[in-house]
Amino acid sequence: MKLVRFGAAGSEKPGLIDSEGKIRDLSSVVADINGSAIAPQMLAKLRALDPKTLPVAPQNVRLGACVAGVMNFYGVGRNYADHAAETKSAIPKEAVIFSKATSCICGPNDDVIIPKGAAKVDAEVELAVVIGTAAHNVPEEKSFDYVAGYCVCNDLSERAWQLEGTGHGNKGKSAPTFGPVGPWLVTADEIPDPQNLNLFLDVNGQRRQTGNTRTMIFNVRHLVSFASKFMRLLPGDIIATGTPHGVGMSMNPPQFLKAGDVVRLGVEKLGEQNQTCVAYRA
How far is CA 233 from the centre of its chain? Predict the structure, then answer.
């Protein structure tokens, strides 16, 4: 299934994509696409529905973040060998996990706001994992039992805030609109092998990133298990699994996002995002 949230920001409704690509309104079945709605029992109930019995959403309606009520939003740094190389970083001996503030989450096609005082905003296409069942100390071989599905994530960063000064990842990755997720949540049964998905990212029509999830240093099974050693993963939590080479800060000269830039990115089988960068307004 492809699950979506649609409507004005703050008033999104739950939906699913039918076989014709139309959004069907799930409001009569679930309150939202959140941790409760993506539990295994509820997903089974949603699969049993006949989408044709559900109302069709308006055409060209805005899409919100594909998951609501996210408690924790994690990222993984330097998880592709080519990206580690381009940033002149050693390949990590264990997964580098950081947090993004959940207040940065937004819809897949919402404007990206260049923060006040920012000069080095960068974009990263990533496969994101969405947790469906609470997980703590999960064995690697059972990791997929706790995954509800996958989505596209643009892990935006302000590189000066991330790497200069105190150099803390969280403050460079958490500005409003720095976490577009969606367009939809694709349930795990449709993605039996998350380690063979193509990724891309364009800025103003020029290709910057091309990669495949098979080149991850730490795969999805490992990341879910590893993260669950240190924290209790909750239904609806998002783990962005890292990005391939081609980020703006590693270009010569570096190329950072500015107002008016258009970013297009996608992951095979999970859809695409399109964002316009806009200047901060008080």
Answer: 16
Provide CB contacts within 8 A for 252, sequence distance 6+.
Answer: none
What's the confidence (pLDDT) of residue 85? Answer: 81
- Contact predicate 134/143, CB 8 Å: no
Q: What is this structure's pTM?
A: 0.97
Each residue's pLDDT tens digit, 29-75? 999 999 999 999 999 999 999 999 999 999 999 999 999 999 999 99
Task: Give dist(CA 84, CA 19) in Å, integer.
Answer: 40
Class of domain 69-279: alpha beta
Closest CA to 176 of 281, 55, 75: 281
Q: What tokens were used for 8?
A: 């004005």
The one-letter code for the residue type at 69 is G
Q: How many CA atoms lie within 13 A of 265 on its CB side?
A: 31
Residue 145: burial class (beta carbons within 10 Å; 0-12, 13-18, 19+): middle
